[in-house]
Specification:
It comes from Budvicia aquatica. This protein has about 140 residues and is an alpha+beta fold. About 20% of the residues lie in helices and about 35% in strands.
Length: about 140
């Protein structure tokens, strides 16, 4: 079990304050990521509710989180009063094991055929192998090496 300090925080902007909150959160993110004890600090805006956000944070230990909370920029963020009361869920990772690497991580080149031009085969170097986001439109993979 991990000894890191991890939390998921649900954030609700006060009515009409979502844009101002987003700006303040960006400043908080930029500063927090510079902290030596910060391993992850990501804030997501909800798709269905633009005034709702989720923070996912991981600090190396409880002291690192306490230091973060004591920083002037963190205190400034809370003093702005842009959010409703926060709801935090503290959790710990059950295992330090990581998922197996994607088989696409071993690919150097793929040979692509455009479905609208079956005879057109070209070599393509993946820009984002892990989720294959580098394919566009009607392209099809023939083989990879």
């Amino acid at each position: 079990m991990s000894h890191k300090t991890e939390a998921t925080v649900l954030i609700q902007a006060k009515a009409g304050k979502a844009e101002e909150l987003k700006s303040a959160m960006q400043e908080l993110i930029d500063e927090t990521l510079k902290e030596p004890g910060c391993e992850l600090f990501k804030i997501f805006q909800h798709d269905g509710n633009p005034e709702a956000f989720t923070l996912w944070e991981i600090f190396s230990n409880p002291s690192a989180l306490k230091e973060h909370m004591d920083k002037s920029y963190t205190q400034k963020f809370f003093s702005l009063g842009l959010t409703e009361p926060l709801s935090a869920i503290h959790h710990a990772q059950l295992s330090d094991k990581q998922a197996a690497p994607s088989p696409f991580s071993l690919i150097h080149y793929c040979y692509i055929r455009d479905s609208y031009e079956n005879s057109h085969i070209r070599q393509k170097r993946p820009a984002d192998i892990g989720n294959r986001a580098w394919l566009y439109g009607d392209e099809r993979i023939l083989w990879c090496s």
